[in-house]
Amino acid sequence: MTSPMTPEEVDALARKRAGAKMGWYTHALVFTLINLYWFLASDLGFGYKTWSPKLLLGWGLGLALHFIAVFVLGGGSSLRERMVQKERERLQREQNRMP
Hints:
Pfam families: 2TM. InterPro entries: 2TM_dom (IPR025698). Residues 14-87 form the 2TM domain. The chain has 99 residues and is an all-alpha fold. The protein has one domain (7-97). Helices cover 79% and strands 0% of the residues. The protein is built from three helices and no strands. It has helices at residues 7-44, 53-72, 78-97. The mean pLDDT is 81.
């Protein structure tokens, strides 16, 4: 079992996780605003002939991967915590085998 974290460690981890989430929210906002601009500029004819959904799809894939990294695999997800725990146990077993 892991030892309890100190208040400073809890604060540092909380700040790191909040920063990662804010990074994703910023990414999503920029994605939305830029793609909306590209769509409207194309639709209203501001020098763009056609708006390409390829840009939306490519960047959207990046945004989806960012989401997975932060909210699914990031700190706090049970999947990540289980993987970390398994690695800790493996490393401890390896250390116990060493003379």
